Amino acid sequence: MEIENVTLRFGGVTALKDVSFDILEGEICAIIGPNGAGKSSMLNVINGFYHPDEGQIRFRGEHRPTLPPYRIAHMGIARTFQNIALFRGMTTLDNVMTGRVTRMRPNLMKSMLWWGSAEREESENREFVERIIDFLEIQSIRKTLVGRLPYGLQKRVELGRALAAEPSLLLLDEPMAGMNVEEKEDMSRFILDVNDEFGTTIALIEHDMGVVMDISDRVVVMDYGRKIADGPPDEVRNNQTVIDAYLGVQHD
Amino acid sequence: MLEQLLFGIEVALNGLMTGVLYALVALGFVLIFKASGVFNYAQGVMALFAALTLVGFQNGQIPFAHLINAVLGTNVHHFGWHLPALLSVVMALASMVLLAVIVERLMLKYLINQEPVILFMATIGLAYFLEGFGDMMWGSEVKKLDIGLPVGPSDSIESFTYDLFGYGFFIDRLDIVAAIVAALLVVTLTVFSQYSKIGRALRAVADDHQAALSVGISLRFIWVVVWSIAGFVALVAGIMWGAKSGVQFSLSLIALKALPVLMLGGFTSIPGAIVGGLIIGVGEKLFDFLLGPIIGGATENWFAYVLALLFLVFRPQGLFGERIIERV
Fold it and tell me: Are the C-beta atoms of residues A44 and A235 closer than 8 Å to each other?
């Protein structure tokens, strides 16, 4: 995926200013930056919640026209949210099943008239979902309403729902926010495993620099709606502009 | 004394049947509220409109006849045919689906991500529009609705109970049909929403719009589905009420009785709508029977609302509603 000169404005506020970077197939790309730098806006542009005022998104080498977010989900882009957006009234299993929407045939009439085919489709998808649940080690909470789960597990279920779509690009908005060290380690392991086993391309926003430097192949740094650096973790860590943005410039 | 008791039971039974009809209207409210968080004020009018359309098709009425006559100076009113009941039901159902598509296209589409109260206001507008539109399209006179449902007292029940208790129960056969239909409807809708993928998508949309979009659910499609189902329930309610008391514009007022039903049952529960309807139906009939003569009668008009007020004080989420918990 290529993001080319994307600018996004809300009224007088420019949230993103002429941002360009690539997300390469199969990599884990971290987007970092101080609060309000435009990271979440960037993710929202990628999955279609916002439409760029200028610039374009190229997906698999082709220009992507302005589409509603649910259509973009059908193109193989799944995501999680900063403030967990699960279907709170449903069980873990149903939440993850909902992630299969893009993999199920949308034929309403047929599924109403011909119960057999709908049932077969349901059980096929159910099998895949059970694999995801095993993979994320959340078997024990399969039938629990997600609203009742602790925060860390909710985040995991949300990841499961995104994975159920077998996305080619997975967007994670602060997957480890508010987690303790152990939970962070688990989540990091899952992210790496997903990338490894399914070959899923991952773009994630994260504040924990330790985690970012450990798991990502490449880091994009943003500040005030602009991209200020882009490169492998080691390079970015020593970049003067990045250090300035995070620690503030010393005035003397 | 026994006579009195048996009469009381008969009153309660009849109340149960009226309750079923309240429940049918309330059910339409719950469906839309659950799936989109919108309180659809127009649900009662939709029942009226569905019944009007059904009768109009069945009797071969020419739509907008008054308007056509006024503009062109003609005098047309009927096509002169009489359609079979089943065909006209199917056509009325198709009209309700079409209405759902139009409502989505012209109204809901522009109100995505708006406050619930704005959507509520929009449905008030829709209610008044639909009432006027129905009047213009089919005329405002009271119409007889007859699609071959059994009506009148059931002789067999009367004679059976007479043999048993020495007292014949008077029960309208239409009420029995209504009860069976309502039960079927609830079972079907519950199974549909719990076990089908569309049902799951409906619940997903109800819980979180953004998340639903992000997994690939089209809000607009789901809304058409929800409003179509609500239109279907409205048609069923319209048929039952219409067969009982004729298709008349006061039908839309029944929607108001659905409000206390919802407060009792909870806005988000399909079984709640049914149980709430039954409690109100039986409650108002029994209350009137037992205490009506003492306090001057006509208690049926206000009993439901007083009961609902009591519930608002002691159990605001209703009997089956989700407990409202705000995390701080």
Answer: no
